[in-house]
Amino acid sequence: MKDQAVLFYSMNGILYPVALTEQQSQMLQMLVKVFEPLQVVKSHPQGESINLLEGNGNETN
C-alpha cells in the first residue's frame, strides 16, 4: 500500500476500517491536503495495513 490517509470509524472504543470507493478515496485525499502537513503520531502505530477488499492471502473458506 502507498503512504496515504485512510479512514477509520470508532465504535465503542474499537477502530474499524472504512471501505471507500475509488472516487471516495480520491475525495478523501483531496480533503486531507487542506490539513497538510498532517502530524503523524509515529509512536502509536495501530497495526499493519492490508487491503480488505482485495484480501490478504490468509482467508479461510
From TrEMBL:
The protein in question is named Uncharacterized protein
The species this protein belongs to is: Paenibacillus xylanexedens
